[in-house]
Amino acid sequence: MLADACGKPVVGTRSEEPVLLGSAILGGVASVSFMYTASAMKALSHQDSIYTPAQSEIRATHDLRYEVFKTVHEQARIMPRC
Length: 82
Fold this sequence. Notes:
Layout lengths: L1 H5 L3 E4 L4 H13 L6 H8 L2 E5 L4 H23 L4
Antiparallel strand pairs: 1-2
Helix pairs in contact: 2-3
């Protein structure tokens, strides 16, 4: 779904806890175990799957829903606050 929302491929890691992996990466940089975030990412994370955005009918449904979201959001911005 993230790939669908972004319209870009999303790479999944082998980690069962990707949020904790991100914390470990940032902790490694903060503790100067790694000089750069990119080097910590390369050392600690490993690619598992690539999720590609949906196409055809599913893509059209996502696009329509996004247009509705933008319309509702714009109407909420111009609506007077109660």
